[in-house]
Amino acid sequence: MSSFGLGLRLSKVTVELAAGIARRNQTVKSGAVSLACSRLQHVDQSQSLHTLSAHTPARSRSRLLQEYNNTSCNLVNFVRNMSAETLPDPSNLIFRQLFDYQSYTYTYLLADKDTKDAILIDPVIELVKRDLHLVEDLGLNLIYAVNTHCHADHITGSGLLKEKLPNCKSIISGNSGAKADLYIDEGDQIKFGNLALEVLSTPGHTSGCVTYVLRNETGTPVIAFTGDAILIRGCGRTDFQEGDSGMLYDNVHGKILSLPPTTRLMPAHDYTGQTVTTVKEELQFNPRLTKTKEEFIKIMQELNLPYQKR
Amino acid sequence: MSSFGLGLRLSKVTVELAAGIARRNQTVKSGAVSLACSRLQHVDQSQSLHTLSAHTPARSRSRLLQEYNNTSCNLVNFVRNMSAETLPDPSNLIFRQLFDYQSYTYTYLLADKDTKDAILIDPVIELVKRDLHLVEDLGLNLIYAVNTHCHADHITGSGLLKEKLPNCKSIISGNSGAKADLYIDEGDQIKFGNLALEVLSTPGHTSGCVTYVLRNETGTPVIAFTGDAILIRGCGRTDFQEGDSGMLYDNVHGKILSLPPTTRLMPAHDYTGQTVTTVKEELQFNPRLTKTKEEFIKIMQELNLPYQKR
Asked: Is Calcium one of the keywords UniProt gives this record (chains A, B) (predicted)?
């Protein structure tokens, strides 16, 4: 990006921030906003950084640097976020978390704000109409129906989505044994617009379970869609035919809980009304996965869960 | 903030971004990250912007501006977000959306990352144990139990929260007729740490309905907690004693849908498995509130809804 381009951007920021101050002075009294505004008091909208040149007097230059400081709230926030609980999403991400009250399944809609290319993770057949309505409202182009695994508790919406949108392709792990247009495995990428999900193979609940990782512009993972591998303060059952507690433990610890502690974990299900957790939280508070591998295997053996209705 | 302070921050960003590139080169291939990395290829970690002075030769100065461009991904993203669907939350916000499967109520946990002061919006009595567990896990200090209005469909958790945490105060509108420690009205602030919610009086569903607005560091509204005033593609019923369709229409349009189109709207309820909407979306797609006031009043009169179980 040219410094001129940046200059234009800085001017826009300056105007926006000045507008922010105006609004602030009318109403907002919070410490955070006061802090932001105290950084902005000296912003001079008549100048922006791209005007800096060899001919700029030292005084103006220092004022321009002061302006740079003043207009850099978000750069500062970015640094503050380096130690935050979570990191911001990629700036071109459109994201929606959707829920099925029947099977307690989370479906995730992700899209590139610029290209409008969209994907649905773990759609539920009964809710395809709702999901397509939202896709249409947001003006998105759904290109993939992506599954984290072959679900025992609900029927995927992939097939119905493909019927309604012939250009939409279904995706699942090659190890799932399920039928799809595209099969993915460890290290693969699912690209939508200028965004992509990376595939981590995380079997243990089923043989074909995968986790999808979204990174921000700096390459740092920000969200992992974990399917049933790890749930909020829980994990997927391992007593089905393809279940393997030891394998689940190794994959969750080796691939998911080894992501940065700030990584948000968004599972395929929750039964407690929670919507998200983080690697840091599950490393501290997951009642099963904080145990040793041997203890974990014993816990999973002794769950004696009822079989799913569906 | 001093330019030296900024320099330190820039150096940290540079290191982080370089680390980002390293990770990126191992694994990530998405267009977005490629774009980010192409901006970063020329970053020189030995210099940062605060070293720029009257003695800096023009060539170095232009290289430093190039470095500034390269290390400013997030400032660029910030500018891109000016035209985005939604804006990032304040960087010091901890945020959780929680749900009650019985009354379809959303409870929101907000906290200041730095001070750990926290508030709960619309807690549900049956789920106080869950909410307190999360507050404890996140190491937060719950100072307020905040209600958007007096609910007909569930009992607030405020009382039980105050029993469990004697220092926690309950908050509701003075017009609600309900009992609380603190009564708020239009223009008031609910401060927690360095963050604050602003109160907008938005009656119509009940006389005491309020909307709470959270702004980011620039003073721009990013989230409005709308209670039952506006729901995702819907709105609260107006056939109870305190209901007034015309008043609801005027308040929703005059105070909520007049916020920036990027403002996320987070209601007290949803019955379709959706978690969030935006001002822009509801202005386009709300089946009731896109109508004229007269049409809206007629629609609300003819809903003939069953009375709530609770």
From this structure: no
